[in-house]
Amino acid sequence: MFGFWQRLGSVFLIAIVAFLIGIFNEALTGWITFSIGMLWLVLHHTWHLTAFEQWLLISDHTPSSIPAGRGIWDNIFAHLARFVRMQNQSQQLINFELKQLQSVTAAMPDGIVILDENNHIEWCDPVAEKHLGVNLTLDVDQQITNMVRQQSFVDYLATGKFNKPLVLRQMRHHRLTLLIQIVPYGNQQKLLISRDITSYERIEIMRRDFIANVSHELRTPLTVINGYLEMLSGEPDIDNSMHQYALHAMTEQTIRMQRLVEDLLTLSRLESTRDKLNERPVKIIDLLHEIYNEAQSLSSGKHKIELDIKNEGQILASREELRSAFSNLISNAIRYTPENGEITICWEIKEGKGMFSVCDTGVGIEQEHISRLTERFYRVDSSRSRETGGTGLGLAIVKHILNRHQARLKIKSEVGKGSEFCIQFPEKRLILNSYN
Fold it and tell me: Per residue in 109-144, pLDDT tens?
């Protein structure tokens, strides 16, 4: 109430001045003075109101942009400046919180889309844009089903039964498999959460293939053994030569199963995070001479095998694992190289890297198969691989050993001319002071 009478102070002052002039002078002079005073007051307020209106029309509402005032308008503009400062502080806080929220959602592996009651897009994060092919700038307020047109998703959204997630495969723009979960909240709004499960699907497929391959690999020798056992038990008077042949065949199949089980156990150990790498300096010359002698024994003189050691030295590694990796590559070369073929085992230090390579003049490999050679049980020629005694796990074991040593396997091959398998060890694995 005090503020109201205070704001009428100017009117009272003009009226008192005009009244005094009218007493000591003519009444007309008093009225003229009062009119002039009121006109000045009207013009004063009109000017400030115009300045206030112009300030409202500008886009930058900052305290410094508020016009200067006189009289009571000075107090009004001061209150306005204080209010604007408070609003700006609140807006800055909101912007900061929004950026924090956007940073958090951007760091999440899941995509997030906010839908209104009519399934229009209100907001989404960058992950959801990638998953669903949505562009927030262009697609805001658009129906989500305009972006995701798969019938299973449209039906899932229409039924309103969101207690179970939905799996979407082969999304457009990307070959992704997504797990979609919708969570209703607020005033009939929905939170759509998308998760990329492509790798999990791939792992599940690999698991199924692995079990199927192991079952197949074990079933064949077991069938042979079981067949001969049935024959021996059903025909007690079988001659000695057939008896010896059956025992020999069963022994071969038993060795094959034993080799498969050993390779599976090796893979399991290499993949275990609890199995730490037992590193120590390994004299590469001694190791290669041991493997070379084994290769000569395995070849039985059927191949020309050369050992080319261009640099001496040591490498920081697990000797047992290196021996396994090198032996696998050499045995493969012997297995797939015809008689009188040539196999070269080479070690050198090139461009700061340790290079172990096995070159052969064997049957070679078509380019389309090279990228998949290190997959478990992958064979270019299944019948030939089984005839030569391979388990289909050798190169998978090599790959895991090299990963544990931060090494890389490079494969070059040409059908009918041979193959080269080269292992590159990083410089940090080499013991430099031991080079000649």
Answer: 788 888 988 899 888 888 888 888 888 888 888 998
| The CATH number of the domain covering residues in 204-271 | 1.10.287.130
User: Do the beta carbons of residue 420 and residue 412 sit within 8 Å?
Assistant: yes
Judged against a pLDDT cut of 90, whether residue 105 lies above it is answered with no
CATH code, residues 108-196: 3.30.450.20
pTM for the full model?
0.54
From residue 125, give the alpha-carbon distance in Å to each of 87, 120, 128.
27, 15, 5
pLDDT confidence tier of residue 419, bands split at 50, 70 and 90: very high
| CATH class of this structure's domain 280-434 | alpha beta
164: Cβ–Cβ under 8 A, 6 or more apart, which residues?
A: none
Confidence (pLDDT) at 15: 64
- In the chain, where the domains are located: 2-100, 108-196, 204-271, 280-434
User: Is the confidence at residue 328, as pLDDT, over 70?
Assistant: yes
